[in-house]
Amino acid sequence: MIQHPAFTVEPWSVRECRLHLDVLAQTESVFALSNGHIGLRGNLDEGEPYGQPGTYLNSVYELRPLPYAEAGYGYPGSGQTVVNVTNGKLIRLLVNDEPFDVRYGTLHEHERVLDLRAGTLTRRAHWSSPTRGEVRVTSTRLVSFTHRAVAAIQYEVEAVDRSKGVVLQSELVANETVAYAGDDPRAAAVLESPLVLEENVPAKDGVAIMVHSTRASRLRVAAAMCHEIDGPEGTRVEAEGLGDVSRVTVATRLKPGQRLRLVKFFSYGWSAQRSRPAMHDQVVAALAAARLVGWEGLCAEQREFLDEFWAGADVVVEGDPEVQQAVRFGLFHLLQASARLENRPIPGKGLTGSGYDGHAFWDTEIFVLPVLTYTHPPAAADALSWRKSTLPIAEEHAVQLGLRGAAFPWRTINGEECSGYWPAGAAAFHVNADIADAVTRYVDATQDTRFERDTGLPLLVATARLWCALGHHDAEGRYRIDGVTGPDEYSAVADNNVYTNLMAQHNLRAAVEAVTRHFDRAQQLGVTPEEAATWRDAAAAMFVPYDERLGVHPQSEGFTEHALWDFAATKPEQYPLLLHFAYFDLYRKQVVKQADLVLAMYLRGDAFTPEEKARDFAYYEALTVRDSSLSACTQAVLAAEVGQLELAYGYLGEAALMDLEDLEKNTVDGVHLASLAGAWIALVAGFGGMRAGQGRMRFSPRLPSGITRLTFGLRYQGRLLRVSITPTSTTYRLLEGPPLTLTHYGQEFPVGGKPVTRPIPKAPVPELRIRQPLGREAAPRRPD
Amino acid sequence: MIQHPAFTVEPWSVRECRLHLDVLAQTESVFALSNGHIGLRGNLDEGEPYGQPGTYLNSVYELRPLPYAEAGYGYPGSGQTVVNVTNGKLIRLLVNDEPFDVRYGTLHEHERVLDLRAGTLTRRAHWSSPTRGEVRVTSTRLVSFTHRAVAAIQYEVEAVDRSKGVVLQSELVANETVAYAGDDPRAAAVLESPLVLEENVPAKDGVAIMVHSTRASRLRVAAAMCHEIDGPEGTRVEAEGLGDVSRVTVATRLKPGQRLRLVKFFSYGWSAQRSRPAMHDQVVAALAAARLVGWEGLCAEQREFLDEFWAGADVVVEGDPEVQQAVRFGLFHLLQASARLENRPIPGKGLTGSGYDGHAFWDTEIFVLPVLTYTHPPAAADALSWRKSTLPIAEEHAVQLGLRGAAFPWRTINGEECSGYWPAGAAAFHVNADIADAVTRYVDATQDTRFERDTGLPLLVATARLWCALGHHDAEGRYRIDGVTGPDEYSAVADNNVYTNLMAQHNLRAAVEAVTRHFDRAQQLGVTPEEAATWRDAAAAMFVPYDERLGVHPQSEGFTEHALWDFAATKPEQYPLLLHFAYFDLYRKQVVKQADLVLAMYLRGDAFTPEEKARDFAYYEALTVRDSSLSACTQAVLAAEVGQLELAYGYLGEAALMDLEDLEKNTVDGVHLASLAGAWIALVAGFGGMRAGQGRMRFSPRLPSGITRLTFGLRYQGRLLRVSITPTSTTYRLLEGPPLTLTHYGQEFPVGGKPVTRPIPKAPVPELRIRQPLGREAAPRRPD
């Protein structure tokens, strides 16, 4: 856990002023660079020491066996796991034959800066070797947003004191040693050396190329590098390629003050189909384009791309510099994870680490895509297009489960289910409604009719069909969905999970509407008016259990009759509970890992009265232990909605600082994209009170005491809005696009050329006392 | 599946008149011999061909890793699996250097007979080698009921035509090749060669000894053999021992009509603690005792032991020779599985095969022990003493699960949980109430006060404590047991399973009564009057859900609101369902693998009115697919109780012929002890209408049309009763012990020196139409 202030608080960058080797692995995740296609962990240039080496290409995975102590029908036999591909960011330095290694000699200074506007990671080191060879090293690294296949590093060494021999070794290295955390020897074997060499062409004529393929999944990965070298006369360059290593060696002698500068361009490509020669040429071509632009050009394009993003997406949080930094850091990582997806998934950790095996989950649709939909909509479309591309697999999965329509996987890279524990995997069918929710949100926000026809409609139809196969009418005519798992992973396989049922209802209604708008296309999908009628009927009859005695919604039918978890007997070190208690124990008691019914109140707020929201929120606050990073942001939104602003503010802090403060102690495995998205959600949907749908964007803003002004940008139906909230009023500005009607506290108003300012009504005093489980209280946020 | 009539129908034996190699593995199970300590599959003397070689010692197991695709807290990391120990039944024959192998040459005759009164397996073969060496071979094998550590074989070869050279090789062989059915290479590796040689002493001075130990579980296994040889002059004997083989070779020349006769005595011992020399001496001593008695003596003692058993336990079924044979076959296997347990478990397959890894389950307490309790009570006491001996492990397991008292394992050999799938393993807590039920049944039947104090009370107290930790009172004061799995494995992790709740209620009440009777001993166990009061209170408030709308009990809360399984769409080849449908699919629908609520109506008949029984039985008949061998017998009992006598008769046939006709196609893995016990239960509790408890034995006899007379013996409270039922009357005879009061159709009557005959009232006409799921109809039984 990052307990000391590893990073300084600055509005537009994340700066580490000293190297802390004890949190090296965490900083590798925080400083990871990516464009959604290539991901480079923030490993030191020289490769060692490292927490976890990491170079990823979106969707390059290896298959690994999934073993079971007792097999069952339909269990996936193999899973996918992200592969650490050829490392192109490696530049080793030797000073008078001594390798530059921060663990030896004297590190006078060491600084790393992630610049959120430049899109670069810069490192400055001042080091003396054990034999007192003193150098300054400066490197700047980027993964290009504008050249999808390209990354680049500018590396400079300066001799500080006397003249010295300096050697740089710039490498491509495949099959690096990666620590494997599991206990399955077969999986470890798979991951030990996943890449089989096909070609290693040394950089004799300037460009080095290595082509590998994965052993079982048969994916071909190509990497190439070339260099621009600027050093004193007599600088010699050599190249060699052997086995899994390609190396360019630059040797020179630097007088004091003299510098050796190397720019390394490297490119990647992968394919399940294209041949070795085709992949070879592809990466060479990418390098050619990058060299044409040059280092300065790449940096300029990078900044330009980010300028445009920030112009629309920036969030300004006045009064809380930590949250200010964190929300920009989060938006930056969301953009990194999605900018150049092009029909690939957004994994839970993006491309910043190997956590969760590199899998994508429902968090993408429910936490990440809403942010992208209103800040960088093309990325949301890309991620949903990926889901659409996996529809045949999901349809096959549904058939295997005895269902109809599509059953999307709980966790996956290539679209096939990888969950090895079905009660918290395949049974979590809500992922299908979550995808539908992301589709309708995107279509509502963009009015992208072509997307709706080609991508949205097939997804909505297939998921609506699933709900009709999963549910049934009982004798009282209620439409029940039994034996499924909702978002809360401390309950499983329950009847009529309120979240699932309400999201399925939304899914069914959205499918009916989409079919009505695109009936010709729907007919091609085999939809008849009769089928659409069954969807309407199931949605209308959807059963939402309610506990009359307590006056709250049970999370699932019967939930409120279960025993309460004994929080008083639970010790602080027994959290997260799932590491210290059996699922058996957790499932049968009232204890909630993460917002479930509370998430339903956010996403299906229309299905609850304000009084129900207040009572339900109070009830579930007392049960929710937040053992998941997907919880705090949703609790923030509902806390704000029911008037618990200071509580909401505490939750905002948790969501926003998840990775910068390593709150869940697993940032080592990659950043928590959903929680980073959650910080934006807590601000915009929480304090901004923003809800959108059915062509209308509504706001009910109200700030907690620590934030003096909150300003954020939103893209909606071709407009760019900027909303600025103070404790007493809110100003709505239309920066781009034609006038539109907004809603402020239930009152509609038009906004066009001129900003509109509306007062914020006095906050009502919440009636219910809110408390969290003993020992899991929300920490109030006190910005300095 | 044994589709042809593999066995002839005879009252006291199971005879195979021709060798059918296609069902060799099944016949090895049927012809297995055991005394509960040693188990020998019915492998051919010469070892090959075989379906599965098998020599077992009760509780000799190896540990094997249990792998998980996704790990969870409290999952067992390793399981136990029964080991094929040193094979002592091997006797190879060579005729003129040609090995006797039924696959070669000409097998003129081949007969095997399991004699249920002699307790022997006899084989007669008449064979010509490919070079026309013609011999007759007769072997008789027994596993001694009177000498726990001893088995013996008498083997005779007779030259039929011309004079020929005959060689016998009598062996002990360890680490035979055993086919492994799973897909875990690590488990396969464990089982490939499980025994590590410690000592191999050849039979230079008459006795050969081999000592091995298991690799991971560190159990020491000793085997010894010695021989009596009777052959023509010039017969030579040699002995050698090398590696995992010990061999005694007997070579002779037989003229036509001459015989070579060999009696092989072999003995076994195992220990987790005793030293190699101690084990060596132990098996030598066992042989000495056996030789003293001699072959004829062993055979005489065997018959005497069985005579005594049959005198009390025999069941006579007039009118149905198949069932007659099957019920005796079943009783014989029950005795074989339990006669010499001495503090060891009764596995689901006894010691007849490696099915279920050799594990013991709840079937022992609920199906096997009731039969033993009324026919051979010492064996029931032994099995429960084993449970008692594992109490410390079960208490530790309870602590691990966050509970109190004892949580007995779902499947085990040594007392530790081996279930690799908790929803159908650790969550099936009813096993604890099942143990308590067996305890109270045994104590009621034997009035064994010492057992109750020393063994019963600790078991009842520990299990009662478990139910108090598992359940809780809800706001209405009902005592709920949530999130557990009942007997039906097509539902799991449900709230208030009626079977579990009623059995837990029984358990709690039994604990209160036992504590009252033995308060001094209970105090030593820490029981206070306060604690006993909580048990009484929980039992009194136990929640038994009821569906008022349908007028039936839901198997678990909410069960009757689930969708009905689509039987019409299920193809015959899709049974058993668990091999063709996901647990997810099965759990959420109304489909029942095996009697669950129906079993509750049998074991807790007092908790249901006759009308409820009739309605519940009809309801669950329509949902029960009998994919488990534990179902038909219970359905038979309730069918008889509600007046569906012909249906009960059909189910009796299924239970009784499970192994003789290989109905579930897995007799290859061992016999189905619980189903064999179930045949007795169907006859005695079904057609005899026998229920016992609270010191009273009650009968409501009524026969189906195919059975003309049913007679069975029962041991109860020191008496031996014999009950003989005809279509019109029942005669009760007291063969041993003082007079007692019985109940016939609710009317009490004394029975003493003279038989009492009572008329059977006219059968009421059942009102409800009973049907089974489409395609899973009960086959009516039509005895020829």
Automatic annotation (TrEMBL), chains A, B:
Keywords: Glycosidase, Hydrolase. Gene3D superfamilies: 1.50.10.10, Glycoside hydrolase, family 65, N-terminal domain, Maltose phosphorylase, domain 3. The active site is at E489 (proton donor). Residues 328-680 form the Glycoside hydrolase family 65 central catalytic domain. Pfam families: Glyco_hydro_65C, Glyco_hydro_65m, Glyco_hydro_65N. Substrate binds at W362, D363, K593, Q594. Residues 753-784 are annotated as: Disordered. GO terms for biological process: carbohydrate metabolic process. GO terms for molecular function: carbohydrate binding; glycosyltransferase activity; hydrolase activity, hydrolyzing O-glycosyl compounds. Residues 19-271 form the Glycoside hydrolase family 65 N-terminal domain. Residues 690-749 form the Glycoside hydrolase family 65 C-terminal domain. InterPro entries: 6-hairpin_glycosidase_sf, 6hp_glycosidase-like_sf, Gal_mutarotase_sf_dom, GH65_N, Glyco_hydro_65_C, Glyco_hydro_65_M, Glyco_hydro_65_N, Malt_Pase/Glycosyl_Hdrlase. PANTHER family: GLYCOSYL HYDROLASE-RELATED (PTHR11051), GLYCOSYL TRANSFERASE (PTHR11051:SF13). Belongs to the glycosyl hydrolase 65 family. This is Glycoside hydrolase family 65 protein. It comes from Nonomuraea cypriaca.
